Amino acid sequence: MIPLLSFAFLGLAGLTQAHIAAWHKGMYCLNGTVPGFDNQNNNDAVNPVFKMPKSEWWMHHNNKCDEFPPAPGDFLELPAGGTFTVEFAGNRGQTTLSFGGKFTSEWPDGQQHPEDFSMPNNGCITSPNLHTTNQSDAAGTVFAISAISAAVTAENLAVFTALYHTPWKRIGTFQVPADLPPCPPGGCIAVFGWVPNGCGIPNMYMHPYRAKVTNSKSTKVVAPAKPPVWCEGTPSTCTKGAKQMVFWNQADGNNIVTTGYQADGSPKSPGYNMKLGFQNGAQNDIFL
Ligand SMILES: *[C@@H]1O[C@H](CO)[C@@H](O)[C@H](O)[C@H]1NC(C)=O
Ligand SMILES: *[C@@H]1O[C@H](CO)[C@@H](O)[C@H](O)[C@H]1NC(C)=O
């Protein structure tokens, strides 16, 4: 037992360049992408997508994550009007989902960092690979939901919650709109999204989960989702109501193309924040 854990720990120590995923037992490829093997050190879910065809980037198909659904009965549970929690980490080994949680800390890399974590000269934090210089500049992450689990499209996949200034620490707690209707039997598909604000290759993150909405008596219907548009500084021009996820900087299938610079002087980066009209918290305006 002890040699095995030491080996695992050494393995983790070498993963400084990993990116970040939102870990939960309801996610796809939690065990990795080797059939029949439960990889406690799995990091297949953390890899971003960049300049790929849609056939590759959609639902993290590029490394076959979408072909490894969660175990039967494992759902990302979304309590209507409540909250749900995921763990941001660069490797499953640094979450409570592996090794009994013994390699976790308050941070996504299992290490200790100061509360106001930053690098000298406002440099990018690379371990954990948060793609930001500090907490206030962290771009924000979202979850979207599609009421069906077959034939998910950009239009039937609406962002229902945003969490500003993440990923940052390991624990991320998202709000669920009170009016989110129940899923059909078998569940919905939920999807995690993140577009970092610079600090590395301008990529994006898209990762699927099997989800169900709990405690809901809502009969509302989520409206068809429209692409977000760049509206930094002019909120009246933002896309109103249900918005699609951000599909950016891929070889095809993009729903936003940017040129020029944003208010902070760096190249435009269409993150999940008010630059695209995403309010923090539950998106309560997504219903028909
Ligand atoms: C992942 O591994 C665990 C432990 O071996 C197993 O119980 C579970 O069913 C696996 N999940 C999937 C989706 O294969
Ligand atoms: C956070 O980072 C941004 C962008 O690099 C910088 O403008 C800002 O001053 C930093 N804030 C703090 C509190 O260091």
Automatic annotation (TrEMBL):
Compartments it resides in: Secreted
Organism: Hydnum rufescens UP504
Family: Belongs to the polysaccharide monooxygenase AA14 family.
Protein origin, superkingdom: Eukaryota
GO molecular function annotations of the record: metal ion binding; monooxygenase activity
GO cellular component: extracellular region
InterPro entries: LPMO_AA14
Listed cofactors: Cu(2+)
First and last residue of the signal peptide: 1-18
Keyword presence, Secreted: yes
Protein known as: Uncharacterized protein
Keywords, alphabetical: Copper, Disulfide bond, Glycoprotein, Metal-binding, Monooxygenase, Oxidoreductase, Secreted, Signal
